[in-house]
Write a structure and sequence with these properties.
With 580 residues, the protein is of the alpha/beta class. Helices cover 63% and strands 11% of the residues. It has two domains: 305 residues, ABC transporter type 1, transmembrane domain (ABC transporter transmembrane region fold); 180 residues, Rossmann fold. A six-stranded mixed sheet has the order 6-9-10-3-11-12, with helices on both faces. A four-stranded antiparallel sheet has the order 2-1-4-5, with helices on one face. The protein has a two-stranded antiparallel ribbon with strand order 7-8. β11 and β12 form a beta hairpin. The C terminus is likely disordered.
Length: 580
């Protein structure tokens, strides 16, 4: 936040400087009243009145110009907030979404919008005007000490109301924000599965749950709004009452011969102007409190980025992948998803990871790619811990196809080029390496076909094959594929097998699969069950060990009633036995 505050310092200082001159010019109506009552009415001079009118008009024109410039500078500060924070906050939101398996929390981006709205609100300008209460009270005191005491008491009372408003509403506003954000997040998450919701007739259930969460937010909003409205009404009423009291004190001073009508009217107007910013602050307190909370949350979010030291650029990787004693625990709970997993691949070697559902295969892939960080153990690429590689530097050397493939709005070529500036030759080369060039040529506009994530133009299998081309774009040295054939037909699976065969010796490949065809195209095999490695090594050796284990389990299985033996073997072993 420190660079941001330094960036905002200049426009905010200009706003504060303009506020100084604006508040000086706001003295013009009071001085005009004073002169009219004490000079013009007593002397009956029309010339004096005309001169005062011209002077007041010039002052008000200057006031309008400076107020306009101040408002524009306020908008500039809001734009600086958005432009400065949006890139870094978006990166952090993407990183958080990756750690949560794609479930991004957009609260940080919404907080930027809240700050931008704050810098466009009149309540913020009122904060710059509030310190001028002391100046106005001092001027009133110079007119008469009784008027000064009255103004001081009124100012203290109004400021006390503002502080009380903060104390009474702060926690309520924060709780309301939290409840409203939870309701919005629930709806966003549900809409991400709109196809399932519509197909299974779950719309009414989703709406019912969302309305329940909304009701919880509304239950908090009612009391909060009542307090805020009540404090605003009390502040407005009190300000009017104070002005009446001020006018009464001034009238008493005039009757007793200690003051003039001009001073009475001028001080009353001046006190009203002094207390107006406090009234505006109280009236805008909800927006100000939301902005303060947003700034606090952004500070915490940016603090996570500040703790990451800037890394020195590392040479291009060759593809040597090493995992030693990797342990990973579920973020919520004590269950170990992985325990003691180790592997070592030389540049160009390939590995297949197999095991039953929930064994931890996808978790291991996310650790090997560096999206998640192990809680114990280490993952190294070319001897360097993955945490030492900046993602922007590591990304071009890595190819990744997740279990759930998502393409981005754009053309097929732009998706293959990872949304960067597309190199036609490199795009075609990646498509050819993925054996998807002919498929893309058959699309309505070939490589220029527009991809809409919500469109049914591309089948899941086609999306998966295009995602493989995206993973192979450029010159990746490490390729990780999480069940890349889950949606492929026979031809697509054969094309994938041919791709893996062609990549052997060139790219380090890790592939998660439930099918046997891909195992024949790799050098090593890792079997995981319950988050723990069962077998690891060259494919032939692992298959032999799994067969021996399967046979031993079959012989040890006692005979069931009827004399028949019930043979059970691990899922991975059964799968590999079929492959053998």
């Amino acid at each position: 936040m420190k660079p941001l505050l330094l960036l905002l310092l200049r426009p905010l200082l200009h706003v504060a400087g303009l506020s100084f001159f604006i508040n000086l010019l706001l003295l013009v109506p009071s001085l005009f009243m004073l002169q009219v009552f004490d000079r013009v009415l007593s002397s009956g001079s029309v010339d004096t009145l005309i001169v005062l009118l011209v002077g007041a008009g010039i002052g008000l024109l200057l006031l309008m110009a400076l107020d306009h410039v101040r408002g524009r500078l306020q908008g500039v500060a809001g734009n600086l907030v958005a432009e400065s924070l949006s890139p870094v906050v978006t990166k952090l939101v993407v990183a958080q979404g990756a750690r949560r398996s794609g479930r991004s929390n957009l609260e940080g981006l919404r907080d930027i919008g809240t700050l931008r709205s704050l810098f466009s609100a009149q309540g913020l300008l009122a904060l710059f005007d509030t310190p001028w209460i002391a100046v106005y009270v001092a001027i009133i005191w110079m007119a008469h000490w009784w008027l000064g005491v009255t103004a001081l008491a009124a100012a203290v009372l109004m400021l006390a109301l503002a502080v009380a408003n903060d104390l009474f509403t702060r926690r309520a506003i924060e709780a309301l924000q939290k409840a409203a954000s939870g309701s919005t997040r629930y709806l966003e998450t549900s809409l991400a599965n709109a196809e399932v919701v519509q197909a299974l007739g779950m719309t009414d259930s989703i709406i019912a749950r969302w309305r329940q969460k909304n009701a919880e937010a509304n239950a908090l909003q009612g009391p909060t709004a009542q307090r805020t409205v009540a404090m605003a009404a009390l502040t407005r009423t009190l300000r009017q009452a104070v002005q009446i009291i001020m006018l009464s004190v001034g009238a008493w001073l005039v009757i007793s011969g200690q003051g003039s009508p001009g001073i009475t009217v001028a001080c009353t107007i001046l006190l009203g102007r002094a207390l107006a910013p406090v009234e505006q602050v109280v009236g805008s307190w909800k927006l100000l409190a939301e902005g303060r909370a947003a700034l606090h949350r952004l500070g915490e979010l940016l603090g996570t980025a500040a703790t990451q030291p800037e890394r020195m650029a590392l040479p291009a990787p060759r593809g040597e992948l090493l995992a030693q004693g990797v342990v990973y625990r579920a973020p919520q709970g004590d269950r170990l998803l992985l325990s003691g997993v180790s592997l070592h691949l030389q540049p160009g070697e390939s590995l297949a990871i197999i095991g039953p559902s929930g064994a931890g295969k996808s978790t291991l892939v996310r650790l090997l790619i560096g999206v998640w960080a192990p809680m114990a153990g280490v993952v190294r690429l070319d001897g360097s811990d993955l945490s030492q590689w900046p993602r922007e530097q590591l990304g071009p050397w890595v190819g990744y196809v997740p279990q759930d493939v998502e393409l981005f709005p754009g053309t097929v070529a732009e998706n293959i080029a990872r949304l960067g500036e597309a190199d036609p030759a490199a795009v075609v080369q990646a498509a050819q390496r993925a054996r998807v060039h002919e498929l893309i040529q058959g699309l309505p506009e070939g490589y220029d076909t527009w991809v809409d994530p919500q469109s049914a133009l591309l089948s899941p299998g086609q999306r998966q094959r295009i995602a493989l081309a995206r993973a192979l774009y450029g010159d990746p040295k490490l390729l990780l594929l999480d069940e890349p054939n889950s949606n492929l037909d026979g031809g697509g699976e054969q094309a994938l097998a041919d791709t893996l065969k062609a990549l052997r010796g060139e790219v380090t490949v890790v592939v998660v699969t439930h099918r046997t065809a891909l195992v024949q195209q790799v050098d090593k095999l890792l079997v995981i069950e319950g988050g723990k490695p069962q077998h690891y090594g060259p494919v032939a050796e692992v298959l032999k060990a799994m067969q021996a284990k399967s046979q031993a389990q079959a012989q040890a299985q006692p005979a069931s009633e009827g004399g028949n033996k019930v043979v059970t073997m691990p899922l991975a072993a059964a799968t590999m036995e079929k492959s053998a």
